[in-house]
Amino acid sequence: MANPTEVPNANPELAGKRLAAMMLGAVGVVYGDIGTSPLYAIQSTFGEHGIYATPDNVLGALSLVFWALIIVVSLKYILFVMRADNKGEGGIMSLMALAQRGVKNSPRTR
Asked: Any idea which GO molecular function terms this record carries (predicted)?
């Protein structure tokens, strides 16, 4: 009888790929909420135990959310998109070429 914590006929390479896919999915869930998070932030800022909704406070909260999103998106662009290199070329076409090359080498598309 097999140990209950062991998976029979488990392939370590396949398990590693599944773990990587689950990790990527978790990152997508966390960062996918960036569109709705500002709404919850505004709601909790001016909620029952938050600050009073004066024009200055509303402008300050909206400014904080706006600049936080601008900085996060800019940093992601600088760190990821600007580092993409396709034989000395850059830009969105370079990213598409790199993505297509990655998909062609994927075992799922064969």
From this structure: potassium ion transmembrane transporter activity
